[in-house]
Amino acid sequence: MSFWFIRVRWALLGLFLLTAFCANMPAQQISRPGTTSSLPRLADGKPNFQGIWQVRARAAYDLQDHAARQGMPAGKSVVEGGEIPYQPWAAAKKLENFTNRQKADPLGKCYLPGVPRIMYMELPFQIFQTPDEIAVTFEWSQVFRLIHTSGRPPLHDGFESWMGTSRGRWEGDTLVVAVTDHNDKTWFDMAGNFHSDALKVTERYNMLDADTIQYEATMEDPKVFTKSWKISMPLVRQKNMDRLMEYQCQAEAEEASGAFERDPRTWYPQSGPVTPSETLPPGGNLAALKTGDNLRRTADGKPDLTGYYESTAGGANYGLERHARDFLTPATRGVVVDPSDGSLPYKPWARAERINRELPYRGYDDPTAHCFVAGVPRGIYTPSPFQIIQTPGYVVLLFERMAWRIIPLDNRAHIPDTIRLWQGDSVGHWEGDMLVVDTANLNGRTWLNEVGDVLSYTAHVVERFVPTADGKVTYRATVTDPIPYTKPWTIEIPLNRGKEELLEVACHEGNGDLQHLKDVRDEYRAQQKKEK
Amino acid sequence: MGIINRLAILTLVAGSVFAHHSFTAEFDQNKPVKMTGKVTEMEWSNPHSWIHLDVETNGKVVNWALETGAANSLIRRGWKKGDLPAGTVLLVDGWQARNGSATANVSSITFPDGKRLFAGSSNGSAEPSK
Description:
The complex is a heterodimer.
Chain A: H1 3-20, E1 51-55, H2 88-99, H3 101-104, E2 125-129, E3 133-138, E4 144-148, E5 165-171, E6 174-180, E7 200-209, E8 212-220, E9 229-237, H4 249-257, E10 307-311, E11 336-338, H5 348-356, H6 378-381, E12 386-390, E13 394-399, E14 403-408, E15 425-431, E16 434-440, E17 460-469, E18 472-480, E19 489-498, H7 512-531
Antiparallel strand pairs in A: 1-2, 1-9, 2-3, 3-4, 5-6, 6-7, 7-8, 8-9, 10-12, 10-19, 11-19, 12-13, 13-14, 15-16, 16-17, 17-18, 18-19
Chain B: H1 3-9, H2 23-26, E1 27-43, E2 50-57, E3 60-67, H3 71-76, E4 89-97, E5 103-110, E6 116-119
Parallel strand pairs in B: 3-5
Antiparallel strand pairs in B: 1-2, 1-4, 2-3, 4-5, 5-6
């Protein structure tokens, strides 16, 4: 990676954080113990932490008192007592980190920030809360945390990860979260404060009033510190935001550096006119969908979709149409139910592109080969599990390979057409026992699978999650996308609820495959050049 | 039960492997490889873990990287870190990367006594054609 690229990336990150920064509130506040009657509460009596929040402190730059530096405004310490109690060797290491921070900060390589750092990164996050779990979705690179509060132990102990394993419990109105199994690669801030894999973090979330959470985190790490230490800062409700947007760190970096190239046919135009959408003829007739009887239900009477899902998907990730085995690409039986012959209604150029994408030199162009998010609807049928969290107002999909989709159920309008997102903008509603999700605002960068079925920015996706029996869901998605297709088409896939737990896949941490794929592409391009 | 015996009964069913890229694009059907070597490291990582293997050919040792499942898929199959100690001898069949590097997609790994370690990293969650 060239030096200028790292510098540009660093500058962008700094600029981004500065832009997101609002006001310099006192970093430390005394949390009020006990219960407060005026707090918003859920039916189970717990304080209702749901909503969009953002830190109000300068902890992201440096947890301790710090003077201003390039890309780093001055700020007060959020550490109780002011200083982090490093062991002597660790104090020296921290200084070294600080000196080399522009290259050494793991965040500069878009690695997952870890806990507690993700909590105070000055980008908003949203909390979803049920009696058994709390999901926290972050705008930064679609990171999420899934915190089980039901008291059951983790299925897989000792699984070391960037974000650690979180287990929550309630102490009165305080949510206490123990975070263990950290790796030793994350930092606490941009200033190089660090820890080892022996780190244990205990977080305490106290709601001071309806719009303020006092966040505390106590760090224990006998390999690095002489004693435990605590940080404290307010999280403030973002009342002006009705949804999270996105900042896909790695994707933006690779696009900026040229490592991920624009496809002018499918990507949302950078400038100039946006091709007007043609009106496509209607799709074919589809079989009526029937929801099951005796479904598990949530307190508000809706079918309870909550749980861990693994889709067998009929091999949709290797072709939406029926496709024979090709060396290491498995055969697929085809999942297209409309058109009824199982083939996608491609325009000729798009069919040619789909075939071309299956050539080895195009393997590099598949966004998931870069570890970017799979998009809609691909995320549902990649052979990787996802978790559904359901509250009265939202259905949230958490994808194991670190991505989320937040689906508000109030049928609100989509975001402005000019804002395009990797996962698009999803809005849902219940039609009886069927969840219907409408997705627009896609950026047209995703592929529909490994063999390159085509999706463009004009795609409009309507998904139906149809519970047919307890733990069984029929997933149907109709895609209307006038750039590559002549009419709408529909796929259908069975989803099954399983008993596993999500385990983090920090995909781009060791993506050696990408270089191999790039070599294949570069060799092809060199050959083409020579032949000219 | 010794570690190696325990390993022999752990399987890595290909279906659990998240294919984040096309194996067909990365590896070469025309470059089948067959090798015997000693494990130098089992690297737990994402999106794939890697077994590094020292393979001696005509007095020259080359360290091969063998692609396996993501760390979480190994955990779900009952693997633990340290399960494949350095020095373990393995027999490997697979396909070499198209770029010619000492990297292979594995179709089978066995111990010298013929016990199977696990299936390869190629994805197989697709159902066979019906």
